[in-house]
Structure formats: C-alpha cells, structure tokens
Amino acid sequence: MNLTADLQKRLQNKPILLMTHLVLGYPSLEVNREVIRQMAENGVDCIELQIPFSEPMADGPVILRANQDALNRGIRVADCIQFAADIVQEFPQVNFLFMTYYNIIFRYGEEDFIKGAAEIGIKGFIVPDLPPEEGESYLSLSKKYRTAPIMFFTPTSTEERMRKVEKMGSGFIYCVARKGVTGKKTAMDDSLARSLNSYRSATSLPLAVGFGISSREDVAMLEGKADMAVIGTATIRLVDNQGPAAVGPFIAELLGH
Amino acid sequence: MNLTADLQKRLQNKPILLMTHLVLGYPSLEVNREVIRQMAENGVDCIELQIPFSEPMADGPVILRANQDALNRGIRVADCIQFAADIVQEFPQVNFLFMTYYNIIFRYGEEDFIKGAAEIGIKGFIVPDLPPEEGESYLSLSKKYRTAPIMFFTPTSTEERMRKVEKMGSGFIYCVARKGVTGKKTAMDDSLARSLNSYRSATSLPLAVGFGISSREDVAMLEGKADMAVIGTATIRLVDNQGPAAVGPFIAELLGH
Amino acid sequence: MNQANSKRGYFGNWGGAFIPEVLHQTFTELNEAYLRVRGDETFWQEYVDLMANYSCRPTPLTFAENLTKHFGGARIYIKREDLNHTGAHKANNVMGQGLLVKRMGKKRVIAETGAGQHGVATATMAARFGFACTIYMGEEDVARQRPNVFWMEKLGATVVPVTDGSRTLKDAINEAFRDWVASMDSTHYVLGTVCGPHPFPEMVAWFQSIIGQEARKQILAQHGNMPAAVYACVGGGSNALGIFQGFMAERAVELVGVEAGGKGIDTDHHASRMTGTRAAAGVAQGYKTMFLQDDDGQMLDTHSIAAGLDYVGISPILADLGDSGRVRFEAATDREVIEALELTMRTEGIIPALESSHAFVQAFKDAPEMNPHEAIIINMSGRGDKDIFTIAHAFDDPSWKKFIIGRAQEYRKSSGE
Amino acid sequence: MNQANSKRGYFGNWGGAFIPEVLHQTFTELNEAYLRVRGDETFWQEYVDLMANYSCRPTPLTFAENLTKHFGGARIYIKREDLNHTGAHKANNVMGQGLLVKRMGKKRVIAETGAGQHGVATATMAARFGFACTIYMGEEDVARQRPNVFWMEKLGATVVPVTDGSRTLKDAINEAFRDWVASMDSTHYVLGTVCGPHPFPEMVAWFQSIIGQEARKQILAQHGNMPAAVYACVGGGSNALGIFQGFMAERAVELVGVEAGGKGIDTDHHASRMTGTRAAAGVAQGYKTMFLQDDDGQMLDTHSIAAGLDYVGISPILADLGDSGRVRFEAATDREVIEALELTMRTEGIIPALESSHAFVQAFKDAPEMNPHEAIIINMSGRGDKDIFTIAHAFDDPSWKKFIIGRAQEYRKSSGE
Ligand SMILES: Cc1ncc(COP(=O)(O)O)c(C=O)c1O
Ligand SMILES: Cc1ncc(COP(=O)(O)O)c(C=O)c1O
Question: Does D197 lie at the interface with B, CB-CB under 8 angstroms?
C-alpha cells in the first residue's frame, strides 16, 4: 500500500494523524531507538528520520544544533541507513520517512540512496532544499522505487504553484504553517485557517501541518482542518530536558489518550 | 668699541679667541652664573647666552633638551634679560651676545628687545632662523643700537652669497663647520680647511668656528685658520656630568694655560 | 553571462536554485525584477552613474612599472578595485542590488559576511538608500574582524553573530537564508558573491562586469593590445568573474583564477575547490557546484589567511569555466601571499588586500616567463589596510603587539575604575 | 596663488622663509626647480595623469541627498578626497612633490607626520618613485597611531620617533629640518601642508589646487551654478586651500575654514588659530603666521580629537585670506565632530575622517538656514576608517575594548611561551 493510501486508511479511524521527527544520532542512536519506541507505542503514524547535514539551512536553532551535535559525535550516513533498516523492521506500524538535505542524497548517489531506502521500507523523503524544478531525477527515481517525494505548500504559494507542486508529489503535502524556519510557535489564527482552506482545495493529498505544536489543544484545533499534525522541535526539547521516557506520555496526551 | 674692533684687539695678544655658550635657566640661573664666572675667569672672550625657545629647530639634541628643561622650570624672557643685565655688569671682560630664535625677539617687540639688550651692554645677536632677507628691521635696528647681527657662513654658501651676507653682518662671522645641527663632532679635514680658506677670502670680519671642539688639540688646529673657536655643546655636557666647577679647568686646558 | 545550459540558472553542470519552497515566490519576483532591469538600459546607466558619483568609478588601471622591471617579463597592470568606496569590488555588487531593491520597493536588506567587507559594503549601501539592515556574521569572524563590526554598527546596521556550525561565512549564509524565509515580503537578501541560487550568480556577475568593461577599454588605451593574461583571486568568484567578463570572448587572453592554498593544498588547511583533491560536486546553500566536503557530503572546515577566500563553494559560472578550460585555476599559499604583499607594498606603494594578494602571487610566478611586449592585468579586488589586524599579526610585528597590549592596559584600567 | 605682497613668499603679512643659512642654497635650488615646473605645462599634465592613473582622480563630487533632506536647506555636495589612494588629499601633495624630486635628481625624501596620514602618503610615494624615505613622528603620535607606523614601515620607510618637545607634529617638523640641514644634497623634505618656509605654502597649495579645479567643474556640471559656500577643515590648511582655489575668484562663493575647537575655544584644549584668542603673530618652523603661543613667544600645547588638526600654526595664505575676510573661520568642538560623523555615517554611508568631520559640523550648522536652490560643498579631506582606534575610542565602544583586551591576552600568552 502506498503512503497516501495508508494515511487515508488510518484517517478512517482517527480524527487526525500524527507525524513526529527526530535527528538521527542526536543525542545517540540508542536514545533515538528508545524515542521511536515511545512514539510508535503511543500511536504515531509517521516519523521523519532526519539524516544530519552540516548546512541545514531550513532548520531553526534547535534542530540545527542537533544536526551539528550528531555530526560532531561522528554519525555517518551509512549508520543512519543501517539504523533505519532495523527500526523499520522493529516498528512496522509506523511509516518512516527520511528527512534530509539534497546534498546527502546527491553525494551518496541518488539512485543508490532512493533504491536503498525503498528496499529497507522507507516510505518517502522530505528534502526541504529540493524544489521540484531541481528534482527531475529525484522525482522519477521516487516513482521508480515507489517512494513518496513529499512536496511543500507554504503561505507564499500561489494557487497555480500549489497545483503544479502537488502533482509532482505523493504521500502527503507538508504544509508550512508560516514563513520562517522550524521551531517557532505559530498562532492558530485566521490567516493560518485561510491558508489551510486554500491548501485543501489545491490537492487531494493528505495535509500535514506543524506550527510549534506542544499541547493537546494545538492538535485538537487542527482536527477537521488538516490530516496530520507534525511535531518537530517539541520532542527534541523534551528529550533534551526530560529524557526519552517522557516522549510516550507526551504523545499520548497530544492525541488525547 | 664695537665688537669687531674688540675682537681684533684681543687677537693681537692671542693666537685664537674663545667663545662659549650656555642656555639660560639650564639647569638654573644660579648655575649659569657660576659657569659664566668660570668661563670669564679663565679667559673666554665671548659668551652666547641662549634664551630658550620651544622650537629650537637648528639645535641638536643636547641644546634642544636644555631649552625644554629651562622652559619647564619656568624661565621667562624677562628673567633672561634681567640676568644678562647683571652678568654683563659683573664680567665686563667678556663680550656677551644673545643667541635665540627669531620668535622670541619678534614677540617681545623687535625694537624693545634690541634697544633693551644694547642698553644692558649686550654686544650682538645670533639668530639662526633669521636670514638677512627676512631681517630688514632687525638689521636696521642693530645698526641703530650698535649691536652686532652675527651672520653665518656655511659649507653650502656660494662665494656670492658670502659676500652678500657678510656685508649685512658685523662683529664676526659664525662659520658652520659642517652641515647639520649643533653638537656633532666634525673632523678637521681637508674639506673643512678648504671651507675656512674660502670663508676667509670672503670677509674681513673675524671668523668664529665650532665643530664639536672638546680638547686643546682641536683648538690648536684652528689657530691660524680661524679667529675664534666656539664651544657649544661640550660645556653643557660637562656641567651636566661634573658640575659648574669643572668648567674653569676645561677652558684653561682648551686655551693651553 | 550567457547560460551554457538550457536550464534556467545553469552553467554547464553547475548552478540551479535549490531553494525551500517558501522562497519560490520570492525568487520568482526577484527573477522578474532582475530580468526587467537587465533589459533596461537606463538601469545600467543609473548604476554606472551612481558608481561614478559615489564610488570613484572607473577605477584606474595602474601600470606597475617597478614590478614590471623587478620581474623583467610581461608588463604588469593593476586594476584598482581598492579605490572603490569602502575599499573593495564588493561595492559594485551591493550598489547594484541596492538600486534593484529600490525598484522592488523593499525596505530592508540582509547579508552574510565573512571578512566583513561585504557586510560593511551592504551597511553602507543601506545607509545610502535608507534601508534597514541586518548583517549575519560567524561568531568567529565577529571576533576576528571587530573593526568591521564597529563600522557596520556605526553605519546603522545590526550585526548578528552566528554561533552555529563552524561560525564562519557559510554559517552566516545559512543564517541569512533563515532570516529571509521569514521576512521575504519586506526584505531582500544581498548575497555577496556570484554563488547561491539563481539568479544571484548571474546577477552579481552582471554588476561586477563593470570591472571588466572598464579594464578592457583601459588596457587597449594604455597598452594598445589585449593582455596575455588576467589574474584574479577566487573566493566566491565575484571579482574574478567581474574582470574576466571583459575578456571572455578574446580566446587568446588567458584567464587565471587563484584560490586560497592556505597551508598547502596537500594539507587539510586550505580553501581550494578547483585545485587540489578535496572538493567534489555537491549542492548546498542553494546551488550546485564544487564544494569542499567529505564522502558523506558534509562540508569541511576551510582555511585561508584571507577571510574573504575562506569558503567551501565556488561560483557555478567559474566551475563551468574551469571545466571547459577557459579559466585556469591555481592556488597560492598563505606564505606566498605574505611575500607577494610585502614586495608589492615596497615596490609600488600599493597595499593589496590579503585576498587580492593571491592573484599577485600567480602573476609574479608567470610574469618573468613572459615577453616584455606582453601585458598582464592583476585584479586588485581590495585594499589591505582594512586588514591591519590580520596583516600585522601575520608579519608577527612586535611593536604592533606592544601597542595592542598597551591599549588593553588602558582599557582595563579605565573599566576597573 | 598670487602673492599679495611684493616680497617673495609673502601673503599679506604672512609667510616668508625663516631658514637657517645652511639651507639657503637648498631653497634657492628648490625655488628654481619649483618655478621651472610651475611654468611647464607638461609637468602639470604629468601630475594630473599620474593622479588619474595611480590615485583615481578626479575624485567624485557626491550629492548627499539624504543629508540635504535631513537639514532641509541648501543642497549638500561632498568632494570625495577620501577616495584618493592612501585615503586622503595628502596624496595630491606628495605625488606632486615626488615628481619634482625626480626632476631634481634627489634620491631620498623625509617628512614629518602627525596623524600618520602624510607619513603613509610620503612612504607610498617613496616606494612608487624608488626613493629612500625617513619619516619623523612625535613619540606620542607613534604610540597613538601605531597602525600607520606599521604601514609606513612595510612600505619601506624608516619611522623615527621624536622624543623632544611635546612629542607631536610640530616637534616632528623641527626634527625633519634637523635632518635636512645635514642631508640636503641628497634629500628633499616633503612638507605635508601649506606651511613652512617659502616656497612650500605656495607649492603645496598649487598641487592641492587640483581639488578645487575639479570641484568647480563638477558643481557646474551637477548643480549648474556656483555653490553658495565651500567648507573645509583647517589644520595646516592644505585641503582647505586646495578646494578654495577653485572658487577664490568667485566673490559670491563664501569660503569657510573650520578649525579644531577641541574641548571649546574658551578652554586651553584646542587648536584654533584664527578663531579664539590664544593665537598671535609669530615666526616658527620657518614662516610667519598666527601661532598658538604664550606672551614670551613659546608655542602652546594644542589639542584636537583629530590628530591632523592638532598643530600650532596655520598656512600664511589662509592667515591672509582670514585678514581680508575672504575666508570665514569657525571652530568645531570634539563633541560636535563626533555627532556630525555619526550622522554622516548613518545617512550617507560615508565615513569622514575626524579632521574632515570638522567641516561637516559647520556645514550642518549653516545648511538649514539656506535656500534649497543653493548648493554647498564640503571637502571630505579623508576617510575615517583609518581612525578606527581614535573613533572607537571616542565612541567609548565596549565591544571594541573587549576585542582589544582579548587580542592583548593572546599576544601576552604567545610571548610568554
Ligand atoms: C578584497 C576581497 N577580495 C576578494 C574577496 C573574495 O570574494 P570574491 O571571490 O567573490 O571576489 C573578498 C571577499 O570578502 C574581498 O573582501
Ligand atoms: C584627513 C585629513 N584632513 C585634514 C588634515 C589637515 O591638514 P590640512 O589642513 O593641511 O589639510 C589632515 C592632516 O593629517 C588629514 O589627515
């Protein structure tokens, strides 16, 4: 079953899905594993596994430092892939995606990377610095290996642009709730609501939205307006401050369990 | 008797005359007085009393610092003139001249200065930064008050220049033995001898020559070639190192007494 | 520049616009604005007039008679970008972009800076045009280049120290992009060199082409002929492309780009992308080029005595010109740079920036082998007196150290009071 | 300049050549050489060409649109001497004298310097012409202006700290004369301003007149009319006379010279000769002018935030133009200077030297009272980035102090090893 279909199926039983994020190797693969376990066991639908890059230009300070820290501790791309292979096996109930910057893929070899990821069961890729115009081979390889190239809608996207972009993507649309990098809180205000309306009318793909979600109320507000809430920086902060064991309760609370 | 005539008279009894120098107020007027006594009592013919100036551009480091030191201790032009008035009275056997820079005279009032100096018995002026072209009033006032404006011959003076300059002056000619400022030793070599020859043929005024004279031999070498040996920096150094009492014996030795 | 590739913003294999989707619309508008002024001759004239009136252009092409005699080979001419207002060719680019920003109606500019040269130039432009201005600068560079930070602040800019990554130029670029993705409605990002996403390489090269246009006329007037070779240092590549464009079509004119050889291109301490073996094709900071990176695609730390050359990437346009052989690349080591600088100061009374001195190194290697009726041009991208802290340090000047220690004592005392 | 007095080298009551007899012949030869080139049009052309090729002349006349708007009065134009090679108008004089020295066949030059600006310019000229070079600089200035000392040395000059007198500019001049009276056969003394014995005031004014010649053409081209007033700071007076000469014959153009008001002209800490009451007619350093001196004729200590204005005397030509009322003199205090500097940086992106900022102060006082169709010109004699140590100090910038303290720590550590 492809990612879109999987998500749509899940949505039949849930008011909203949840996608979480972590940076591989931060603070260590062991902690990553424990965090993923907590997420998986508490009902997360998708997890972004970010492969660290030295120049994460679309990320805010928290994720940026996590990238650096992981690199300083010596994490390699091959380690990330190996780890992902194990994890995908271990938690079949979750859709795993690789999130990274294009240079990691490019340098690894685009086909090797995508093919390899598909083979270990990765469902898609989130590559914030690869617009579809630059992603011809990435898009065709994604098609070839049936992985989902996740596309972005942003508050600056015109309708025309959204229609063009969503055609290139699959899986879901990663909706940027506001301008700026990851990690900042956004109010669920009229303008966000308007954006979500126009996003919805531009595509039939599920909409994933993150805007600094940190509470049950935040998630509840999204229900009916989007298909998947995205938790990014919040869990990294949580693990930093309270350790991996805090993640499970946090997820459970978010989902109102 | 004017200065020239006085010097010529002295020369009838001596192979060479001696002119010494001191900076008024350095290290103090009291010490100056004692130094002058030592000089006078040991047969010095002329003494240059240098009135300190803040910008003694033709002086070398020793005299320069003596100027500054005297000014720092608060010496005023009026003090210098008053002191000179006393000294001229006390040592009638010596010809006293004021040596200073033009601004001191200019600022005091040229006529007041020259008239006042003449009245207290000063015989002449040595003003290294006042060439005859700039000294019209100075020269005519010197004539009026019968003081001698001392002119300079230098190694760079052309014959034409010397003839022009010596006509403007009286008393004696201050012969610069070499290029440069005061206080450096010059060898009594062929080129100095040649200079003195040409100086001699350019004027009938007595020739005063200084070139870092510090011993009897230096003075002896000048005999027959010049009319007056000039001792500048040497006595200042002597007083600095050994006190005023050393001046008398030094002068006596120079003159071969 | 003409594009060698049919795809927009590509030069051979290099270039492109690898930008987050949120900037798509911003780049669309920037491209439109750029193409509008590019096609508008009055804009170029306005630019030329502004540079003449504000920045002393045309800058002279000085015949270096003493250096020529010293080497006894080719006649050496120096293109004097050091005489620009703010002291380097960076002024050309910022003033050009400033005019563009005015036309776009934006009211704020941001920029990255390494050495501080581009930061000072941008702050200057912002003051002149009345724009708000924020400059991103690696924390390490802030510490090294305090005088430039001081001037930027006095010119009215806010300088933000970047504490992430290697805390140098590339991190400042990332941070500027982070600002931009949040502020693009009001803000233009004044990229400092011929790198980054399309249209920056092409646009900055266009503004810098004023150097080559002038130099071409000047060498014909003064030497009567095309030069045999043209030398320029290559950080991002803007001064090099600026002057090269005047001679691109003359196949007989050799174009030589000189990279930072640091402690030697066989060491880990250099910033040579086109010479040496540490660089590989990659995509970062919005464009594809040769980057100094490891096998995983992580960017490497770079080193150069010249902060302005201390950068992981290189202009996609130059990467392509290197591929095609149109530009020959060489590297100059820190030590060679100091020697060339010293010689140039003493013989010509000219103080090239440490960056520019790289170009002098290679010219000095080649000139003696050349014929006395040949001419070469060295692009002196900036003046070295801005680098007093670095240069005095590099010369290990004892009186300089004493001076700094004395000043510090004063400051310690007065703050202790 | 035409001489207002029938006596050679006099301007009204001022000027002359109060030189030791040993220099008589040297001055005779200098006068002859000067008159020869003065009458030789090819010399002036050679000079103009050299300045164009080596120093970016003509320097622009920049319309300061923002300052004009800010004050809402006269249109403010800035003559950009800061864009000269070495960063100030001092380059004009030294290159001119350099050409003269070449014609005289001498092989060594000496100069005094206060701020270091004229020293750097002379060292630069000496490097370019292949002359040996010694620079005299007051010990206190050596300590204050170490960066300039560093550059002079790197340019190949020997810098001699002068330990006598107030250990500043006037003492350096005395010391240079002391060198000259011993070395005049091989050596030319490159006096830095329009002071000293004839022919220096007239000769330096002639070389600097290139500023006024250009400015006159430029203001006519840009404004269509003569300016209402022209402002220049006055240390010795060379930049002021340089620009004033372009407008001397236009009686309707007011010429305004701005002196260093220091902590106030009613205090003992300033360097105002034509304003205030501390100056009197006198003779020193080879010429007659208004000097800051006491009743005995001893020169006073002067003070200015701008080292280049910190001088006891003033050009005899300007003293005369002050007497006749052709030039109006004003003073600007240290505090006013910092304010004008700050405003100019922020509004125009231009960093005037502290010296030049004095001219800006008075222009800013007058401009608002004037009519918007009138124009004024401010002569920006030099750039301020050379003054980082003084300016950062004056602004009492805490990060700058921290930076210096940090550097000093490094140096202490490394020398402790
Ligand atoms: C004087 C100077 N030259 C050269 C460079 C390198 O930049 P580019 O290669 O873009 O000319 C810099 C960058 O700061 C610079 O300041
Ligand atoms: C920038 C600048 N302006 C002005 C002056 C003052 O000199 P002048 O009055 O001769 O122009 C100096 C002297 O060093 C200077 O450096």
Answer: no
CA D17 → CA A122, B52, D109, D284, D297, distances in Å? 93, 21, 20, 10, 18
Q: How open is the CA angle A165-A170-A173, to the nearest 5 degrees?
A: 65
Task: Tell me which chain B residue has its CA closest to the CA of residue D173.
Answer: B57
Based on the fold, state whether residues D262 and D117 are members of the same structural domain.
no
Is chain B in touch with chain C: ≥3 Cβ pairs within 8 A? no
Same domain? D219 vs D356: yes
Identify the domain boundary among D142, D166, D200: D200
Task: Supply the ipTM of this predicted assembly.
Answer: 0.95
The dihedrals phi and psi of A111, each to the nearest 5 degrees, come to -70, -45
Instruction: Please tell me whether residues C222 and C334 are part of one structural domain.
Output: yes
Enumerate domains of chain B plus CATH numbers: 3-254 (3.20.20.70)
pTM, two decimal places = 0.96
Residue type, C84: N
Domain membership flag for residue D142: yes
Task: Decide if D176 is inside a domain.
Answer: yes
Which tokens hold the place of D228?
Answer: 């209402």
| CA dist., res. A30 & res. A23, Å (int) | 12
Q: Are residues C153 and C253 in the same domain?
A: no
Point out the ligand 1 atom lying closest to the alpha carbon of residue C240. 11
Q: What is the count of structural domains for chain D?
A: 2
Kindly state whether residues C155 and C278 are assigned to the same domain: no
Q: Are D284 and B103 in contact (CB under 8 A)?
A: yes
Residue for token digits 């009938």?
Answer: B204
Atom of ligand 1 nearest to the CA of C195: 10
Dist. CA D87 → ligand 2 center (Å): 11
Query: C159 with C303, same domain?
Result: no
Q: Whose CA is nearest to atom 1 of ligand 2?
A: D382
Domain that holds residue C193: 17-52+89-200
In a domain, C404, yes or no: no
Residue C378 maps to which CATH number? 3.40.50.1100
Strand partners, D188: D109
Whether residue D250 is found in the same domain as residue D278: yes
For residue D261, tell me if it sits in a domain: yes
DSSP H stretches of helix in chain A: 3-11, 29-41, 61-72, 77-90, 102-108, 110-120, 136-145, 159-168, 190-202, 216-222, 233-242, 247-254
Q: Which of D349, D388, D391 sits opposite C124 (nearest CB)?
A: D349
Domain end residue (candidates: D149, D172, D200) = D200
Same domain, D319 and D181: no
Tens place of pLDDT per residue across chain D (417 aa): 444 445 689 999 999 999 999 999 999 999 999 999 999 999 999 999 999 999 999 999 999 999 999 999 999 999 999 999 999 999 999 999 999 999 999 999 999 998 899 999 999 999 999 999 999 999 988 887 889 999 999 999 999 999 988 888 888 999 999 999 889 999 999 999 999 999 999 999 999 999 999 999 999 999 999 999 999 999 999 999 999 999 999 999 999 999 999 999 999 999 999 999 999 999 999 999 999 999 999 999 999 999 899 999 999 999 999 999 999 999 999 999 999 999 999 999 999 999 999 999 999 999 999 999 999 999 999 999 888 888 888 888 888 898 899 889 988 887 764
